[in-house]
Amino acid sequence: MVTIYDGKPGPSRREILKRGGIGALLVITGGAVISPQHAWGIEPSALKPQTMATLIQMARDIYPHDQLADKFYAIAVKTHDEQAAKDPAYKELIENGIADLDRKAGENGYSGLGWEDERVAVLKQIDTTPFFQTIRGGLVVGLYNQKEIWPVFGYEGESYSKGGYIERGFDDIEWL
């Protein structure tokens, strides 16, 4: 067991490793967003690195899954950067949307809010805007179409190529 400052037992090494990227620190350096703790990074081509970091936090707050590392959210929001590189109006929508989000969040911006409840309250202020709907809609596909995360949710993928669900025991869903 790991011992915390107050002498109470903390999480075991196994528990820390099992949690993966939870609560990871994202570093913005040069033109990239990096997670030094988990050895991944993303280099935006059109959006500002701070914008990408905020989009990653926003994605985690819209679709919160504690068992998923930040890198999966980064992959999901990368599509917005790719679209912004092709379409100046799209880039303006995203950059202005993040700027508005930061203004509504206060002095330290959206990413500076320390509690998820505070960030969600700010998101509720903009949930009907085209910016929010664009991000939310893109996340549905960008996040949940990543095959690496399917096992986390108990999804085995499409079944047609494997003979269908009936041939594979369609009632074997243990996660419900």
Give the strand content: 5-15%
Strand order of the largest sheet: 1-2-3
What is the ordering of alpha helices and beta strands? HEEEHHHHHH
Contiguous helical run count: 7
Shape: elongated
**Helix/strand/pairing class, anyone?**
mainly alpha
Brief rundown of the structure:
With 176 residues, this protein is mainly α.
Q: Explain this structure to me?
A:
By secondary structure, the protein is mainly alpha-helical. It contains seven helices and three strands. It has helices spanning 13-19, 49-62, 70-86, 88-105, 116-126, 130-144, 150-153, and strands spanning 27-29, 32-35, 40-42. Strand 2 and strand 3 (40-42) form a beta hairpin. It starts with 12 loop residues before the first helix and ends in a 23-residue tail after the last helix. This is Gluconate 2-dehydrogenase subunit 3 family protein. InterPro entries: TAT_signal. It comes from Aquamicrobium soli.
SSE topology:
Elements: H1 13-19, E1 27-29, E2 32-35, E3 40-42, H2 49-62, H3 70-86, H4 88-105, H5 116-126, H6 130-144, H7 150-153
Antiparallel strand pairs: 1-2, 2-3
State the main characteristics:
176 residues; mainly alpha; three-stranded antiparallel sheet; 7 helices; 6% strand; disordered N terminus
